[in-house]
Amino acid sequence: MNKRSVLIGLGIIVAVVIPFLPLLLWSVSDQWFYPALLPQQFGLRGWQYIMTTAGQQITEGLVQSTSLALVTTCCSLLVALPAARALGLYSFPGKKLIGLFLLLPIIVPPLCVSMGYHLWFIRIGLAETFAGVVMAHLTFCLPYTIFVLWGVFTDYNPDFEYQARSLGASPIQVLINVTLPMILPGICIAALFSFLLSWSQYLSTLIIGGGRLLTLPILLFALMDSGDRPVAAAVSLVFVIPALFALVANAHFLGRQGMTGVR
Amino acid sequence: MEQLILDNISAGYRDQPIIRELSLAVKEGEMVAILGPSGEGKTTILKTIAGLLPPLKGHIHINGMVVNSTAAEKRDVVLVFQKPLLFPFLNVRDNIGFGLRMQGIRGKQAARQIAKMVELTGLKDLERRKVHQLSGGQQQRVALARGLVLRPSILLLDEPLSNLDADLRHQMRELIQHIRQQTGVTTLFVTHDQSEALMLSDRIALLLQGSLRQLGTPHELFYQPQDTEVASFFGCPNLLKGNIHNNIFSSAQIHIPVVSANRSQCTAVIRPEQIDLTRAPQPKGTEGTITSVSFEGIYTRLAIETASCEITTLSNSNQYNIGELVYLSIPSSAVHIIP
User: Would you say B304 and B270 are in contact if contact means Cβ atoms under 8 Å apart?
Assistant: First the structure.
């Protein structure tokens, strides 16, 4: 191992692992008062609470969060793929304006967006529904998904598709056997972005869901409010682990595959 | 029998024809080159024939059937692009087998056909390689094998040699000729490189400004160009205006015997490599002074200023110097008359 990789390793530990340490310690502490550096008394009360008393709620939250994030990711990929392809491959008037419009949901404070949505969704009956929350999440996920895939398609050579057609592949076969494998790394990154963004949505879920959809972030905030730090820490870890898993799996997959699909 | 007929084809994008009213018939087993300068839409023609672009006008016949409305994947034609465009997520073998897989041909039959192509294109021992582990020449061969494995009636090649360096060009040329001998596949290819067209094809269709200018054997296009632009395209700079009287072409003090009817006005195209050059005065030679010398390997290109015009010659001697007085004699065989 050379000096450089040691430094990089240290950097990762300092930036990624150390911030989690207090969380880990909190989750296994029974007593931890100022000014002690470490908990005075260790115990698994926090974990016990979320496994037993709040177990069902946490499981429901996990299921709710996962299904919301998965549906949002699928929807945002379905919308973003054709949009990004058009933006990346063709030039047409108004392209820059579309780029600007796509940034709007990121620029405008999420509270304003969600409040606005809420009014509309009440009128059209989407408030406090799964579909309504998915749509609210999409607002924040789509720009990222489209921007990631836009970049992928800018470097994409559609001649690969023409070549496949000439070799006897029908348009559907081209999509499955050429286009998708070609941009798979880009799709993975875009999906990860979308999944993580939806996973960590709090405000929009709360406003549009109106307390009907209890996702993990909503449970987390409720528990944090209660002031029970070991429990909040344990829930936080439960919240982080699936996201971390998605990230690591993605990084591992991408590391093997690389962006070979683009020219 | 004509395997491919282009009947009055106009092709291009969004109603802006790049190719106008091209008619061309390619016989079974023939190799025809579409030659033209870069940016003349030669690739567009191939894409149109392959069904990747609809023709703006005209009809395409393949094996006697009009295929205008036949989808690309159903045409008995394979287009091999200029870039190899190998699928990076497949290995060499799977790339070659791609078309077969799309047609639902798998197992032993596919394996047999792939093995045959691997053998033919000299890709043995590379079948398991990843695409990015191949050299440029190998990639080109995989691309060719991937098209040929489908046994198309017509093979369309887009600039098959132009991306390769001199050594690979030679190998690829041999390979294409070998494949033709073995498979007898009808081939239409486009190129901007006249030498590529001259050495590979049975006939050449020369495209200038988007329309067919001359169609003929390589020999015909090279030695009997239809007009001065064709002559210039094939690198003939000597275009002398003059007249013919009693089988003598005259342009100022240059007189060359030719076999032709009398003409008051015509242009003589004189191949530079066929002009004889001497230092000693010649009885029928034309006197001139060398104004520029450029060494081009086998030949040395000399510009010679005569009393009436400048003539370029290609000499295989590199002993000439600027300012030297020389005598040109132009044999009848070097002259082609354009009315």
Answer: no
